[in-house]
C-alpha cells in the first residue's frame, strides 16, 4: 500500500535551511527559518523557563495524565495573558494543544464540526501552513487581499472589498499581531472595521496570535485580539507559546473558543476536549506547565517579561538600523517600512530573481517571497545585508 505514496511537496523553508547548512561560506547569513535568534545566532532557553524547570524538578511527583483540556490552570493563565478582562472568562473554553499549529488545526476542526461546508478566509499572503492544513482537511480556502506589494503595507481598502464576499458561517482568519510573513499589520481602527464586517456577515473570527510580545509589547500586541473579543459574540483564538516563551520544541499552544453566552461554555469546552481526544488524546503538558508556573509567580513573570522585552527591543533596534542604513545607501525612503513593520518578519518586496541573487552572490538566505527574519541579523550583519539589498533590489 505504501508504494502508492507520492512524495509530498517539500517545505520551502526547510529546504532553504538545508541549502544554508550546506553552504560553505563563513559569511553566510540565515534570514530564513522563523525562530528567534540573539546577536550570537543562538536561541537560548529563557531564564524564567530554566528557573521554572528547576522548580518543577523538585515539585513534580507524577507524570500521570492531566485532563483532556490539558491542565485547566494553563487555560486560565492563557485567557488572562491573551484576553485579559476584554471578555467574561466564563464564556471562554480553552484547551492546551501541541503548539500554535495544534491550536490552529483544532480551530479548523471545530469550524468544520459546526459547519462542514465552512470556507476559511486567509490573508494574501499568510503563513503557508494555514493554507496547507485547510486544504489537507478538505476545507475550502479563500484568500482576502492584504499586502500592497508596491509599498509593503496593508492594502486595507482592497482587504475590505474582498471581505465583502464573506458568507454567514465562514471563518475569517486574522493575525492578532506581527503578521507572518509580511510584518505589515492592521491598526486597531482597522481591526474594529473588520470586526463590524464579520459581525454584519454572521461569520466567525479566528485570531492566530503567535508572536505576542514581539511587536509593540505584551499588552499592545494583544489589543486587537481583545478588541475583537469584546465586540464579537463568538470567536476563536489560537495562541502559541513557542516564540514568546522560547519553547518551540515543547509544543505549547492554546485554543480558546468564546461562546455568546456563559451557559454555552460547558458544551463548547466539552467539544474542545472531545477534539483533543480524537486527535491525540491528552495534549503535551511540560511546556504548558512551565508557562503556567511563570505566569502564576510574580518573580518568574517579571523576569520573563524583562527578557521578552529585551528580545523585542533588540529586534526593533535592528529594524531601525536596517531602515536607516538603506535610507542612507539608496538615498530614498523606499525601505522605511522595515522600521514600521512589527514582529520577527518583514517582506521586503524583492523579486524571486533578486532573492536568488542575494543568496548566490552574497550568501544571504531569505524565503523566496522575500520574507526576512529580522532576528537572523545582528549589528554587524545589518550593513552587509543593506549593502547587498541596495545593490541588487531595483
Ligand atoms: N501561526 C503563525 C503565524 C506562525 O508563524 C507560527 C509559527 N511559525 C505558528 C502559528 C505556530 O507555531 P508553533 O506551532 O510552533 O507554536
From TrEMBL:
Cofactor(s) needed by this chain: pyridoxal 5'-phosphate
Organism domain of life: Bacteria
Record-listed E.C. numbers: 2.6.1.57
Domain Aminotransferase class I/classII large: from-to ranges: 27-388
Annotated transmembrane regions: none
GO molecular function terms noted in the UniProt entry: identical protein binding; L-aspartate:2-oxoglutarate aminotransferase activity; L-tyrosine-2-oxoglutarate transaminase activity; pyridoxal phosphate binding
Zinc listed as a keyword: no
BP terms from Gene Ontology: L-phenylalanine biosynthetic process from chorismate via phenylpyruvate
Pfam families per the UniProt record, alphabetical: Aminotran_1_2
Gene Ontology cellular component list: cytosol
Annotated keywords: Aminotransferase, Pyridoxal phosphate, Transferase
Gene3D superfamilies: Aspartate Aminotransferase, domain 1 (3.90.1150.10), Type I PLP-dependent aspartate aminotransferase-like (Major domain) (3.40.640.10)
Similarity remark: Belongs to the class-I pyridoxal-phosphate-dependent aminotransferase family.
Annotated NCBIfam families: PRK09257.1
Subunit structure: Homodimer.
Protein name: Aromatic amino acid aminotransferase
Organism for this UniProt entry: Celeribacter baekdonensis B30
Upper classification of the organism: Bacteria, Pseudomonadati, Pseudomonadota, Alphaproteobacteria, Rhodobacterales
